[in-house]
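Protocol step 4 of 6: record predicted structures for both targets in the notebook before any analysis. Target 1:
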Amino acid sequence: MSEQRIAELRKRLNQYNYEYHVLDHPTISDAEYDQLLRELIVLEQQHPELFDPNSPTQRVGGQVLDEFTKITHKRPMLSLGDVFSREELMEFGQRVEKEVGPVEYCVECKIDGLAMSLTYQNGRFQFAATRGDGVVGEDVSHNVRTIRSLPMEIDFLQELEVRGEVYMPKASFAALNEKRREKGEEEFANPRNAAAGSIRQLDSRIAASRGLDALWYHVPQGLQLGHRQHWQSLQFLQQLGFRVNPLNRLCSSMTEVWQWIEELARMRPQLPYEIDGVVIKVNDYLQQQQLGFTARTPRWAIAYKFPAEQAVTRLENIFVTVGRTGKITPNAQLTPVRLAGTRVAFAQLHDEDMIREKDIRIGDQVIVHKAGDIIPEVVASLPQQRDGSQVPYEFPKTCPVCGMPLVRYPDEAHHYCINADCPARVVESIAHFCSRDAMNIDGLGVKRVELLHQLGILNSVEQIYELKHHAQRIIEVPKMGQKSVDNLLAAIENSKQNSLEKLLYGLGIRQIGEKAAKILAQHFMTMDNLMNASLQQLQQIRDIGEITAQILLDFFQDEANRHLIQALADHGVRMSCDQQTVRSSLFTGKTVVLTGTLAAMSRSQAQALLEQLGATVSGSVSGKTDYVIFGDNAGSKLSKAQSLGVTTMSEEAFLQEVNRHAG
């Protein structure tokens, strides 16, 4: 009898949740709902053998994890390409329609939240995973379960993946920050940060208290389920009880798409959630298949980002920070102002020349915007509003952290602290060495490096490989248990096998980015060869100019740097490059530029093929360029190549050349 009553209560409460949180049409009072929920809680306590993680009682949270489990997505969660103007959007439409003919578009609000993937099996919620890096995310099921609008059971028994956006409504965000103010806690900067912070809580009770919600917009298996259109998949989700945005709109042309974007822009301030743009998708699944994907983005969808919002506020002070290479960056401290849904109190000023050219003074009223809706920047000062109290800024002559004199190199806009022992440089350089694109040591971000540096056990890059001797002290660091320490030490050990280009980039040599590091590694093959190269040998390498060659020579002649590299070698860090199989071809030893949209492959795939054929792939056209390979909608790079007399090659001709050297 109790089992029957529990099942009945769960079914009724799930229905009431759906009516209240999805349909916004409650059919019982809050008091009645609470009475039924209390009855279910009591019955479940009396019958623990009937526990169900998907029960309505679990919406309040209570599960506490030691750490998040990694989940590999069955299908990659790709990001979207961005456009920032009507013209760019129309170009996207022209490219799409040229390739597949007339198109119907689905237009959706771009919710400013956290991308999420849900998996259901046998009609029951199984788990939720964050996007992560697009391939591997984190299992946050215990927190997503607390979102009351989310169905725990659906009338669909096959395995189903549903994707969407978890967000914090504006009302929940305001209430959360008010509570934090009352407690004297730091406020969240914006709803997106608040949502991300809530969904990554180990204690689900915290997430449950934050008032999160979600909207769902994608069924990766839509075509396999017999749906011909994305719009059908959205209706399918709605029928299963998922919240789908009622502002989604079907448009028969790009002109109609733009009209709806303008309408959404007018509605934006009144929406109950933050949006930072609009997503435009080709509606027909077969047309989506024809258009395909690049390495990172679908070619059948684009995100239109709203223009950067601007605000006027007072510049209260200017202070400088020190980066990993010793680069000094001036920053503006502002009277806090709301900008694109965020409380902005600081902004970038780039360098001394920018401050002087824009005549930015302490005490000025300034115009601030967010570059790409992300990084706050000072656009201009308003000299007409000065009252005589403003003070011109004097750029410092010494490092604010270590006190050593700053240096400004010829032909460079930035100042540098050249003291290798500067604490700020030490922390930033270690964190850079450990970053994903360098040695990829997960668990050693800036904050944790700073803590270990303060403990005195991580004062240089080579000491990363000595942390295994300090395991017991590391366990005492906040949020570090035994398992976290084990994972960190394993990541450190695994990093020793990285190819030379990863190490070169990780060393943080000025002007040596990922591309230059790869070119150097593949040219010299070993660290010894590179360290012993002459200035002339370095200058002869394509894409390594005179200034960069001199920087490299100076770096490897410095005894401290040679000592660091020897110490890393003694710890077992690999000092050689993966052997790249290069086939002789028309492109061997040539500089090639790719432009336009390639139909047969992504840009990164084409680059990899060219490198295998001995080419150096560049991003810009110059007199030193040997070939420009062009696809559809090739623009200024193709025009410049033609004006310079550079040899151009269609994608079809390029593929013929590739096929000649296949195998």
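Target 2:
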Amino acid sequence: MKKTFTLQRRRSPIGPVWLRCVLFAAASLCMGLAITGAMQWISIGTLPGVLEWVRDYPAHLAMTALLWAVPVYALGALTGRLWIAALPVGLLGLLLALVDYFKNAINGTPLELADFGLARQAGNVAGLAGDLTPPEDFYLAAAGLLFCVLVLLLTRRLTALEGTARARTCLFSLTLAGILLTGTGTRAVGGRLGVDFYTRMDPAENHSLHGLTLSLWRDAFPQPKTPPEGYDQDFMLEALERIDRLTEARPEPETAPNVLFILSESFYDLTRLPVLQYGGDPLKNFHALEAESVSGTFHSHYLGYGTGYLEIPMLYGLGALDLPPGTNICFQEPTVYQRFDALAEQFTKSGDYTAEMLHAYDNTLYNRTVTYPLLGFQKSYFSDEIQKMGIQREDGAYGGFYMRDGYFFQGMLERMKAVNETGKRAFLFGITMENHQPFEPQKFNYECQIPLIAPDFTPAQRDIIRVMLEGVTRADQALGELTAALRECEEPTIVVFFGDHRPNLFMPGGDTVYTLLGLCPENDTLNWTTEQINDLYSTDYLIWANDPALLGGLAGIRRDSSITALGPQLLELTGRPVSRYWALLEKVGEVCLTQTDLYFVDGAGRASFTREEAGLSPEALELLELRDAVVYDAVYGKRYITEQMNLPPGS
């Protein structure tokens, strides 16, 4: 009996109920602060950096700590023991911070809510990224959180809740959690603390100012997109009339060429980089073809990654800025991709084209097996299907870690031939992979066909640059093989060739080749100038034809293009009849090449941070306002004129 009494005394709570309730809440908040500090430590990389963030943004610290304290508080009330609750919640914070660190390591951009659309493919994404090693700060932060959990364990009798107190605390905690899980409640609490949950921000700026947790939370509760002033059916019918006055219907063109639309992974003219020199021209085919092509700077929305996120704007015309923050553009409801006729359908709706997509990797990423059929593609071919086409090459199907571009292009030619044999023309959208990250020194078996001259770089850094050099060289050689084959082909064919983004090129120590070359001050874009953004968020493109007449006398001209302008540019060049929607996008492309949270590029390639800073003419602003109205009507509104936008102008 004595032992039993002693055991009960050892396990019994200490202090009155009211004091334990207060200590329970205070300990939950302290654990929230600890999780916040640990995550910021992993994200920022130094404790002085964390302290600077705390000093500059105390309201952001308080709101973030509250967001982590509430689940600790609620789970602690449910279990009756705070230290038990702190373990899974703290682990979740550490995992989020680690994923954010890895995403920054892969492509120099922070974790966004939209990235959770790829959660099921996390293993494949990590495989494409190469070797991912947690930083030392991760283990130190984890040790700090574990120490905090240990303190909660040792002081558990001071915070133990039982009976009515536990039930009331549980009810209160769930009520508080419910408030924070609504946009109205979050904004109300945030407003009390002085946290802005309304203003849309570039992801890098959002992450830098608010920290990882709060930046993700802000994305989850965005301010609704503001409708155009006076939005109703009459307003949209008037907009339709204005669109018809600015655009015109086109007759069927006399020639219907095949179209090979090629997204070349991480391709760009690296000879424009300063300091680096080469023992030959790595883009000799591309440079020679420019004289026969429409070519120029290609303005992308990304640097280092984002291929799947730019395919939708390329083929459908909607960008991330048209959707709520945190929305993954590749994982919308199917009806979203069917509201407008896509680029491929501007060719296939006439009945004389077949549209197909070919990808040099598997079908696991970016929801392509769902979106491409909705965007008008009758068939998709991934790496396995391409290898079943019977293609013979002495160097085999694979180069480096992925399918060779040359092998892939032969697959495109096989499909073009097969489609032509049915009496139709081919519209083929191809996505290469040979030059995809990771840019590890052993990727191409340490081979580099063109000597690199980079005396200011270490041997380890030169090894990584050589991988970039070899990848771009191979992409250029494959382009040369493709165009050589098409010169011998009797079927009229247009090739649209562009780099989706530049490679990230992270070096040992965390710098990129771009920071080492002085092209930007740091990896984080927060302090970049518009000129630096516009330079590094651009690649190169060309539109070439095996019959110069298909280019309408434009061969050899230079013209800036972009993710959202290249499709309309092709339609203009081929003279395809287009819907009102694509006719409007053609006009918009003349005044706006890129518009994202990060920056704005006008039709001449000049960059500003926002549309308002660009100094646009009233005519240009009218076009952008019309596009905004059409997109709002289709995505958020009543779709008063969405069906009419899929008809030719004047219908």
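Step 5 preliminary note on target 2. The radius of gyration is 28 Å. DSSP finds 25 helices and 15 strands in the chain.
Proceed to step 6 after PI sign-off.
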